[in-house]
Specification:
elongated, alpha+beta, 4-stranded antiparallel beta sheet, 2 domains, Methylamine Dehydrogenase, Chain H, about 20% helix
Length: about 170
């Protein structure tokens, strides 16, 4: 093996590391941060005091991380579990103290046939394992969104209404 890249990712030890899409790397460190890296450049990161105001940094620490390509699953030393959108780190799912103590690992259910049976109608499923000797399945409900054809229809309607209002307000405008 040959070292290709070396850089300082965290102050202190790295608790977990996961490879993501587009050669991105996700790290969870003892410095209470979770970071997404592209080569040696920080793409984005999470810190407890920014994402969960009122909860002191020292009370929580990211312990485990996994990146499915679409989602980032996180576990903490206090037993909490979260799912974030991978590219923006927007939190979609959070269970405070899902486990009684340290979450040692998290993994997304694969999108294979057996995995689809576990998913049901949900967008993602995350398994968490903790020191409390429990394994829990966390299901992310499917987010509702507008179909593209409906969005285009609404935009076209908005343009027509705008033109009609301009014509009404300024006769002879067109």
């Amino acid at each position: 093996m040959k070292k290709v890249l070396e850089f300082k990712a965290h102050d202190g030890e790295i608790e977990d590391i996961a490879l993501g899409p587009d050669n991105k790397v996700v790290t969870a460190g003892r410095d209470f941060q979770c970071c997404v890296w592209q080569q040696d450049q920080l793409v984005t990161g999470l810190r407890w005091h920014e994402n969960l105001p009122g909860i002191p940094d020292k009370a929580y620490r990211y312990q485990a991380c996994r990146d499915s390509g679409t989602f980032l699953g996180l576990g903490t030393v206090t037993g909490s579990v979260a799912i974030h959108i991978a590219f923006s780190l927007q939190r979609l799912y959070y269970v405070k103290e899902a486990h009684g103590i340290v979450v040692t690992d998290v993994a997304f259910v694969p999108e294979s046939q057996p995995g689809q049976e576990l998913l049901g109608g949900h967008e993602a499923a995350l398994l968490s394992v903790a020191v409390d000797s429990r394994c829990k399945l966390h299901l992310l409900p499917t987010r509702r969104s507008l179909p593209v054809w409906l969005l285009l229809l609404l935009c076209a309607g908005l343009i027509v209404v705008t033109i009609l209002l301009l014509q009404f307000a300024f006769p002879g405008f067109l």
